[in-house]
Amino acid sequence: MGVSRKRAWVNVERLMARPRRELRLVLRHGKQGVTLLHEGKALTRCYRTKVGMACAKLMAEALGVALPPPGGQVEAVVPNGVLYRAVSLSSLDLRVPGTEELADRLLEEAAFQRQRAGGAPAE
Rounded to 5 degrees, what are φ and ψ at 51? Predict the structure, then answer.
């Protein structure tokens, strides 16, 4: 899949334009990293680097699923707000001091929104 984050952002904006209680997303762990998809279209990608894979784990946690093993994929059904937080987590540079607090806050909000939508319980 050769979609850059910049080009994938168009798909995210399209989804975020209309609030939805349920979005069916797929988290796919491929050779180049972890990609978040909706209806086969890339929304964001975490590349196979130390920081990228740490962001992929945070993104999976925000979605309320486990990070799939290489070559695997997992489906998540979440509201728009959780998608927003998952995409935000995928873009963080965890090497910058202070981003841990931001990541923690985004994860708390995602857990709350999943719980309110009747999805996965907050941890």
Answer: -70, -40
pTM score of the predicted model: 0.86
pLDDT tens for each residue of 14-46: 888 887 788 999 999 999 999 999 999 999 999
CA proximity to 65, closest of 40, 100, 29: 29
Q: Is 101 helix (H, G, I), strand (E, B) or coil?
A: helix
9 to 41, 50, 86, 87, 116: CA distances (angstroms): 11, 23, 13, 9, 26
| Interval 64-97: pLDDT, tens | 999 999 999 999 999 999 999 999 999 999 999 9
Could you tell me how many helices (H) and strands (E) the chain has, helices first? 4, 4
Contact 43/13 with Cβ under 8 angstroms?
no
